[in-house]
Amino acid sequence: MTITATASDARRVRWADLVRAEWIKLASIPSLVIGVVCLAALLLGLPVLAGLTLDYSGPVDPDLPQTLYMIAGLPTSLAIAVSGVLGALVMSAEYSTRTIQTTLLAAPRRLGVLAAKVVLLFGVTTATSLVAIFAGWAMSHPLFARYGLQADIGEPGVLAALIGAAVSIGLCAACGVGVGAALRSATGSSIVMIALTFGSLLIVMLLPGGLLQNAAGIFALGMAADRMTRIGSEGAFLDVALGQASAPASWIIVAGWAIVAVVVGGILLKRRDA
């Protein structure tokens, strides 16, 4: 009778309780905390470092897209790999330490546990990235302004690009949670996320030119996340033949990666034993 009541109570665990429990786990694991700190340091430090190196690079012609790349694009290309690995570790680390069994015993609704991890990590990484990106912009703005390279918030597309950079980092973290749930291996899921994010930027460049490279450049996770940090162009929404994708299309592509990864991870989480 006692066992039945306990199981019944476990199945009625509230959503807020799941999120709170995941927050406690996140805050109590040093590697995850260090990862979030490194994420913020990348996004804050690289724009300032880029602004300081202008003193040694000589005269530079004003170029808003290039300035925005140094402020948001370059840091984000590294940060998406960090956030993807964080997402993978949030899920796979529980399998490595066998704490997943305790988690699922306390909250048998596995999809609820997965959803809590996804929502929490997406929120934490996006919020952290947003603060760090705008802090990096504010600190580097006077350094770039000395050379007429400032990217003012009022310039068309700049604000959307900075927000897009933060959201892309959060979505890659969510994708990592799904991959971690599917693979269960901390090492394997981390390698996959590095390959999908930062690695895809390099892989696409090595592909032979033509339709294959164009399609890979559009739909690769890392490339799509990179375009979320760029100023929108007046070109086509999505044109595979020309290898062109707009910023809104890139938002959809990156979100699609995250959704597919979480859905696949959820299916495997329900079907396999803990």
Q: Indicate the mean pLDDT.
A: 85
- Series of H and E elements: HHHHHHHHHHEEH
* Fraction of helical residues: over 70%
Main beta sheet strand tally, sense and closure: 2 strands, antiparallel
Overall tally of domains: 1
Quick take:
This protein is mainly α and 274 residues long. It has helices spanning 2-11, 15-28, 30-57, 64-97, 99-106, 110-145, 158-183, 186-206, 211-219, 221-227, 247-271; strands at residues 238-239, 244-245.
Structure notes:
This protein has 274 residues and is an all-alpha fold. The protein has one domain (2-271). It is 80% helix and 1% strand. It has helices at 2-11, 15-28, 30-57, 64-97, 99-106, 110-145, 158-183, 186-206, 211-219, 221-227, 247-271, and strands spanning 238-239, 244-245. It has a two-stranded antiparallel ribbon with strand order 1-2. Helix 3 (30-57) runs antiparallel to helix 4 (64-97) and helix 6 (110-145) runs antiparallel to helix 7. The longest helix has 36 residues, at 110-145. It is globular. The two termini are 25 Å apart. Residues 1-10 have low confidence and may be disordered.
Which short descriptors sum up this protein?
single chain; 1% strand; 80% helix; 2 strands; two-stranded antiparallel sheet; 274 residues; mainly alpha
How would you summarize the topology of this molecule?
Elements lengths: L1 H10 L3 H14 L1 H28 L6 H34 L1 H8 L3 H36 L12 H26 L2 H21 L4 H9 L1 H7 L10 E2 L4 E2 L1 H25 L3
Helix pairs in contact: 2-6, 3-4, 3-6, 4-6, 4-7, 4-8, 4-10, 6-7, 6-11, 7-8, 7-11, 8-10, 10-11
